[in-house]
Write a structure and sequence with these properties.
The structure holds two protein chains of two kinds. By secondary structure, chain A is mostly helical. Chain A contains ten helices and no strands. Chain B has two domains: 110 residues, Rossmann fold (3-Layer(aba) Sandwich); 67 residues. In chain B, β6, α5 and β7 form a beta-alpha-beta unit. The chains are: A mainly alpha, B alpha/beta. Chains A and B meet through α1, α4 and α5 of A and α2 of B.
Chain lengths: 217, 203
Amino acid sequence: MFLAVISRELRIAARNPGEWLQPLFFLLVVITLFPLGVGPSPLLLATLAPALIWITALLAVLLSVDRLFRDDFEDGTLEQWVLGSGPVWLNSLAKVAAHWLLTGLPIVCLSPLLCVMLNLDYQWIPTVALSLLLGTPILSLLAALGGALTVGLRQSSALLPIIIMPLMVPVLILATQAIGSSLNGGTFFLWLAALLSFSLTFLPLAIAISLKAAVSR
Amino acid sequence: MTESSSILCRASNLLCERNRRTLFSDLSFELEQGQLLHLKGPNGSGKTTLLKILAGLFIDYEGEIRWQENHRLIYSGHLFAVQGQLTPYENLDFMLGLQGVVASRDEVYAALAAFGLEETRFSLCRELSEGQRKRVTLCRLKLIRQAIWLLDEPYSALDEAGTVLLSQLCEQHLESGGGLVMTSHQAIPIPRSIHTLELQPCS
């Protein structure tokens, strides 16, 4: 069932490419415009680059999550999730995995390009990519939690960032610190990995509980 | 006096309040094998809520519902659970997976054909009409063998041929000893004894 949920999501995305490409375009546009805005100072750009990449990645994930559970809620698929024989948390995890494949993974793949655009030295590319690889799944999980909590509400797009932003702050801090201090050991990467395994363990359960509550409202 | 084993579900003293309004109180009924229970009542009298309570989707009620052991049910509500970007086959395949039912491609296609949907095999569900999407969701009834069906307004949006098909399917289900609870504003065109449960709006 896990794979069935993922393949269903990917199939829907393939037939509706605009929806998942939009956050990636957003990411590229912001990173393109930024050097034009702050002026062509290579040193300044390279200093700002890690934070810049991470903040735009975070916003791109937020941008994509509003509709994550909305369609399934409105057409009754979530009702059938709850009534089905499989556990809701596993379906939720599959949904998050599909979301990461469509948002987080492309961001990781784009990161070398982003680094070059911001004049970050080549040797930093693996570090930035690793931080994104560890961090974007956490962002997807948190965003899905926000989506699940607000799925039945009309003002969800306004409420969602307010709920989710504070939870994303630790990820942002850890990731940018990890990039900044990676030369003197990867402690921050370990913290990031710890946060990822924690979120992977508990957030699907929280998402499942919120979805059940939304359906039975 | 019927044997207790033939009783699929016994609900006693149900009370449900929604938005500070009592929908029903002191409601008791039984559902036996082969029995069709028709929930009747004006709009807003709580028919859908009662079905959702039976399905386990709505848990904010008082009273007791006892099910037969290992009961499995199909709930088909106002929402069809049909995703517009998928074909009827893909939708059904996913819904069967959710219920833990394995059906071959041919079986699903046969069910779709029985509901007159073979022409739409390769269209996306968003291109289908309301009635056709309803047929897609009702195909589950043919593919999933479950003892209890909870159908919310199954006849709405269906044309005459669809109504006949659905009635035949319900009849077979009842004959094989299944239980069926449905809401319907029309008279139910199934030639069997129908137990009616009238929900009166409480003052």
